[in-house]
Specification:
Its EC number is 6.5.1.2. The protein has about 850 residues and is of the alpha+beta class. Helices cover about 40% and strands about 15% of the residues. The chain contains 34 helices and 26 strands. Strands 14, 15, 16, 17, 18, 21 and 22 form a 7-stranded antiparallel beta sheet that branches. A hairpin with a 7-residue loop joins strand 17 (about 385-390) and strand 18. The longest helix is centred in the N-terminal third of the chain and has 22 residues, at about 5-25. It is globular, with a radius of gyration of 33 Å. The structure holds 2-(butylsulfanyl)adenosine. 2-(butylsulfanyl)adenosine binds near residues 128, 144 and 319. 2-(butylsulfanyl)adenosine binds near residues 80, 121, 123, 236 and 322.
Length: about 850
C-alpha cells in the first residue's frame, strides 16, 4: 500500500479510537491538543490525497454542503410508537402502579401464563432516528417521520460525535452485512444550556427545551450548523440485521450495539425477573431524573425475550410487549389565589403567583414566579385564574399559561344600577347566553404596586428594563438583610462566623441596619439577638424575613431558630466572640472585595477588580466621574451609570464614611491598568451621558476646543449640539468633575515601587495561550505591559513565562518541551501583584 494511504488509514483509525474514548466511553486517553494535532495532520493529507479519504474519516463530522431539502426515506421496518402507562402519585409521593400491573397481566396472559423478564430503560426525550450500516459503514440515517416515511438526515447524523461512522468489529463474530440500529438523538442538558446562552448572546431566540433544540439542530439543511450543535445518540434497538451475531434477547441486542460502538445509558437501564423489580427501578429513576445529564419523560419497559416479543406481537401501531411508563406530569393545573411581589437583594421586584397548593413533579408547589410585569401582561395572569404550572427539574416553578375558559367572569347588567357581581360563571357557560358581550372578567389585569410592600419606597422601572426595583436600597428591610448577607459573604468581606441566619436575626430585630452597624456589634447585643430569636414571639418576624430570602432563592425553607450548642454552657459567649473576631478580621479587605461587597448594581467580582486595578484606592473610585468609568475595559454605559449613580447618592457616601469611621480600611493596591491609555479625550468625550458621538467626532471636538477642558466648558464657538448639551443641568459640573479627576488621575507610579515597574515582571517575555478564566487576552497583556513585561506571540527559548488557560494548544506543549515556566491566571495575578 502507498505509504500516504497507509498513514491516512492509521490516522483515521487512531482518531476514531480517541473520539470513541472521549464521546462514547467518556474516558479520554489523550490530551485534546494531541487529538487536534493528529486531526490537522489527517486533514492536510486528505486535502492532498482526496482519493484516500476514508468513509469514516473524522473530518466528515464537520458537515457537508447544504441541501435543498431532505429526501424521503421509506422505513422497511415501520417505526412504531408505544402505548403509555401512568403511575399517579399521592400527596405523600407514593406511586399507584395499577396501570403497570395491568400491563404485566396482559403480557402474562399473552404468553399463556408464563412470567417474562423485563428490561427497563430510559424513555429519552429526543427524536427517534434509524441508522443503517452496510458492511459496517453508516450509509443512511433517517428520522421517524410518520413511522412509514421519514427524512434522510445522514449528513447531519454524521456530525454526531458518538455515532460510529464505521462499526467496531465485534469480538466474537464478523460484522453484520446490514444492520439497522434505532435510538434517540438528543441534546444533553449542559449542552442545551450552553447553546441557549450563545443564542441569547447573539440576540437569537433561545430554544424552549432540549428536545426542541435537538429537533431544530438535526433538521438543518446545512449540516455545518448541526455540527456546531452538540447532539448525542443513544441506541435502544436493532430493527433488522443480516449477518453478525444473532441476539435472543433485548439485553443481548443492547450489549451487541455497545460492542459495535454505540452509547448506552450506562447505569440507567436494567433487566428484572418480575414487574416489582421494574417498578422499584422506575421509582429510583424518578428520583434520579433531575440529576441525569439528559431529559427523560419516563421509562420504557420491554419484554426481554425476542421470541416472547414475537408471540405478543402488535396491536394497531404499538407493540404489546413494551410500554412507555411515563413519569407524573411536571405540569399541573391550579388556581391563582393572589399575586404579590417579592423584593430581591438588589431591590428587583418579582411578581409571584400564590397558588392553591398543587403537586407537580414530586413536590407541592404553592408559589410560582411570574418573572416581571411584562411577563404577567403577556400571559395576562389574574387573580382567580386557573393556570398551568410547570416545574422543570429543580428550577423555580413558573406559570406557563392561563386556561382562559376557566377565568371567573361577571355579568355587567346594564339595566340595574348596582351592577357588579351578579354571577360567576365560566366562558363555556357564557357562550350559551344571549348577552355574551356583557360578561367581563371578575378581576382586572394585574399591575405591579407603585410602592414597595416592605419599606413603602417607590417602585421604579428604568427605561428599557424588564425589571422594576424598589428604590429603598438599604432602607428596605428585604434589601437590607440580603445586602448584608452579600456584604459578609465569602467573596465579599468574608466575615467568618456571621452567616445568613445571624444576619436575618439581626435585621429582623433591628439591631443592624447598615454595614457599619456590624462593626459596632458587641457581646451584649449579640446575646440579646440570640435570646430574642429563641423567644416564640419573635419567631414570626424572623420567619417572614427568612422566607422572603428563601423565596427569592426559589426554595422553601423552614426556620430553625437559635444557634445553641453544648459548648455555650461552659463559655456562654464564645459563639458571640467568634462572630466579633470574624468581623474584626474583615477590617482590611482588598479594595476589589470591598467594592464588590457594597452591592452596587451591576458590579460583580470582575467589575470590582477592574475598578480596583484602574484606580488603586477607594478615594479614587469614589470620585471617578461616569465618563471615566465608561472608558474602562469591560465597563459599559449601563455599568458606568450605575456606579456613578451609587456614589452620587449622599446616603451611600455617608454609609461608606461610616464604615471607614468604624475602622474598615480597604487596602490600596497597585494601579495595573494603563489608565492613560484608557482615558484619552476622544474616549471619554464619546462616552458622555446623553451626548452620543463617535471617537473620531470626539477627537475633532477636542481639537476645536483647543485640546483642553477649559475650552470645552467655555468656548462659545463650538458646535451647537455641544453647546446645547453643555446647558443641560448637571453636565457642566460633570465636565468640571472630569477636569479635576484627570488632573489628579491615579498613575501607575501611585502605588508601585519607585521606578513604576514590577521587578518580577519587568523585562520578562510572556506568551498567552488558551482562554483564561476571567481575563481577556488583551487585558492580561495590558496588565503585563503596565508593569514592564513584554508579550510575544510565539514560544521560544527566550520566553520566560507561558500563561495558559483552557484549551491551550501547541504553545503550551512547546513550553513544556522547552521547559518554560507555565502559569495559570491566578499565578499570573500573583506575579503581577508582587
Ligand atoms: S422503543 C416499537 N425505546 O418513544 C417500540 N422508544 O413512543 C419503538 N423512545 O418515537 C420504540 N426512548 O422516539 C423505545 N428506550 C426507548 C425509547 C423510545 C424514547 C421514543 C421513540 C419513539 C417513541 C415511541
Amino acid at each position: 500500500m502507498n505509504p500516504t494511504q497507509q498513514k491516512i488509514l492509521d490516522l483515521t483509525a487512531l482518531l476514531n479510537r480517541y473520539g470513541y474514548e472521549y464521546y462514547t466511553l467518556d474516558a479520554p486517553t489523550v490530551p485534546d491538543a494531541e487529538y487536534d494535532r493528529l486531526y490537522r495532520e489527517l486533514e492536510a493529507l486528505e486535502a492532498a490525497h482526496p482519493e484516500f479519504k476514508q468513509p469514516d474519516s473524522p473530518t466528515l463530522r464537520v458537515g457537508g454542503a447544504p441541501l435543498d431539502g431532505f429526501e424521503s426515506v421509506h422505513h422497511e421496518v415501520p417505526m412504531l410508537s408505544l402505548s403509555n402507562a401512568f403511575s399517579p402519585q399521592d400527596d405523600s409521593g407514593a406511586f399507584d402502579h395499577a396501570e403497570m400491573y395491568a400491563f404485566d397481566e396482559r403480557v402474562r396472559g399473552g404468553l399463556g401464563g408464563t412470567a417474562p423478564e423485563y428490561v427497563i430503560e430510559p424513555k429519552f426525550d429526543g427524536l427517534a432516528v434509524s441508522l443503517l450500516y452496510r458492511d459496517g459503514v453508516l450509509v443512511r440515517a433517517a428520522t421517524r417521520g410518520d413511522g412509514a416515511t421519514g427524512e434522510d438526515v445522514t449528513e447531519n447524523v454524521k456530525t454526531i460525535r458518538n455515532v460510529p461512522l464505521k462499526l467496531h468489529r465485534p469480538s466474537e463474530s464478523a460484522l453484520p452485512e446490514l444492520i439497522e440500529i434505532r435510538g434517540e438523538v438528543l441534546m444533553l442538558k449542559a449542552d442545551f444550556a450552553a447553546l441557549n446562552r450563545r443564542q441569547l448572546e447573539h440576540n437569537q431566540k433561545p430554544f424552549a427545551n432540549p428536545r426542541n433544540a435537538a429537533a431544530g439542530s438535526l433538521r438543518q439543511l446545512d449540516s455545518k450548523i448541526t455540527a456546531q450543535r452538540k447532539l448525542h445518540f443513544f441506541a435502544y434497538s436493532i430493527a433488522q440485521q443480516t449477518g453478525g451475531s444473532a441476539c435472543g434477547t433485548h439485553m443481548q441486542e443492547l450489549a451487541y450495539a455497545a460492542e459495535l460502538g454505540f452509547s448506552l445509558p450506562e447505569g440507567n437501564y436494567g433487566c428484572f425477573q418480575n414487574i416489582d423489580g421494574v417498578l422499584a427501578f422506575y421509582e429510583q429513576m424518578h428520583a434520579k431524573r433531575p440529576d441525569l445529564p439528559f431529559e427523560i419523560d419516563g421509562m420504557v419497559v420491554k419484554v426481554d425475550s425476542l421470541a416472547q416479543q414475537e408471540t405478543l406481537g402488535f396491536v394497531s401501531r404499538a407493540p404489546r410487549w413494551a410500554i412507555a411508563h411515563k413519569f407524573p406530569a411536571e405540569e399541573a393545573l391550579t388556581v391563582v389565589e393572589a399575586i404579590d411581589v417579592q423584593i430581591g437583594r438588589t431591590g428587583a421586584v418579582t411578581p409571584v403567583a400564590r397558588l392553591h397548593p398543587v403537586f407537580v413533579g414530586g413536590v407541592t408547589v404553592t408559589n410560582a414566579t411570574l418573572h416581571n410585569q411584562d411577563e404577567v401582561a403577556r400571559k395576562d395572569v389574574r387573580v382567580g385564574d386557573t393556570v398551568v404550572v410547570r416545574r422543570a427539574g429543580d428550577v423555580i416553578p413558573e406559570v406557563v399559561r392561563v386556561v382562559l375558559e376557566r377565568r371567573p367572569m361577571q355579568i355587567l347588567e346594564h339595566s340595574s344600577s348596582d351592577g357588579l357581581q351578579e354571577d360567576l360563571f365560566g366562558a363555556a357557560d357564557s357562550a350559551e347566553r344571549p348577552s355574551e358581550n356583557r360578561t367581563v372578567p371578575l378581576y382586572p389585569p394585574y399591575r405591579l404596586p407603585e410602592t414597595c410592600p416592605i419599606c413603602a419606597s417607590p417602585i421604579e422601572r428604568e427605561e428599557g428594563e424588564a425589571v422594576a426595583r424598589c428604590s429603598g436600597g438599604m432602607l428596605c428591610e428585604a434589601q437590607r438583610a440580603q445586602g448584608l448577607i452579600h456584604f459578609a459573604s465569602r467573596k465579599a468581606m468574608d466575615i467568618e462566623g456571621l452567616g445568613q441566619k445571624q444576619i436575618e436575626q439581626l435585621v429582623a430585630q433591628d439591631l443592624v441596619r447598615h454595614f457599619a452597624d456590624l462593626y459596632r456589634l458587641d457581646i451584649p447585643t449579640l446575646q440579646k439577638m440570640k435570646e430574642n430569636a429563641e423567644m416564640p414571639s419573635d419567631a414570626s418576624t424572623m420567619l417572614s424575613t427568612s422566607t422572603s430570602a428563601a423565596l427569592s432563592a426559589g426554595i422553601s425553607t423552614t426556620l430553625s431558630a437559635g444557634t445553641s450548642d453544648g459548648q455555650n454552657k461552659k463559655m456562654p459567649t464564645k459563639w458571640a466572640q467568634n462572630i466579633l473576631d470574624g468581623i474584626e478580621a474583615s477590617k482590611q479587605p482588598d479594595l476589589a472585595r470591598f467594592l464588590f461587597a457594597l452591592g452596587i448594581r451591576h458590579v460583580g467580582e470582575r467589575t470590582a477588580k477592574v475598578l480596583a486595578q484602574a484606580f488603586g484606592s477607594l478615594e479614587n473610585v469614589r470620585r471617578a466621574p461616569e465618563p471615566a468609568l465608561a472608558c474602562l475595559p469591560d465597563i459599559g454605559a449601563v455599568v458606568a451609570r450605575s456606579i456613578a449613580h451609587f456614589f452620587a447618592q449622599d446616603a451611600q457616601q455617608a454609609m461608606i464614611d461610616e464604615l471607614l469611621a468604624a475602622g474598615v480600611s480597604p487596602k490600596n493596591q497597585a494601579v495595573t491598568l494603563p489608565l492613560a491609555q484608557y482615558l484619552t479625550p476622544e474616549k471619554w468625550l464619546s462616552r458622555l451621558p446623553g451626548f452620543k458621538i463617535s471617537e473620531n467626532k470626539a477627537a475633532a471636538l477636542w481639537d476645536l476646543a483647543g485640546k483642553n477642558i477649559e475650552g470645552l466648558i467655555n468656548d462659545n464657538a463650538l458646535p451647537a449640539d455641544w453647546q446645547a448639551w453643555r446647558k443641560i443641568s448637571g453636565n457642566l459640573s460633570l465636565l468640571t468633575a472630569m477636569q479635576q479627576f484627570l488632573a489628579q488621575m491615579p498613575s501607575e507610579s501611585d502605588t508601585m515601587s519607585s521606578d513604576g515597574l514590577n521587578a518580577a515582571v519587568a523585562g520578562k517575555t510572556f506568551v498567552l495561550t488558551g482562554t483564561l478564566p476571567t481575563l481577556k487576552r488583551d487585558e492580561a497583556q495590558a496588565m503585563i505591559e503596565a508593569v514592564g513585561g513584554k508579550v510575544s506571540g510565539s514560544v521560544s527559548k527566550k520566553t520566560d513565562y507561558v500563561v495558559a488557560g483552557e484549551a491551550a494548544g501547541s504553545k503550551l506543549e512547546k513550553a513544556q518541551t522547552l521547559g518554560v515556566a507555565v502559569l495559570d491566571e491566578q499565578a499570573l495575578l500573583d506575579l503581577l501583584n508582587k
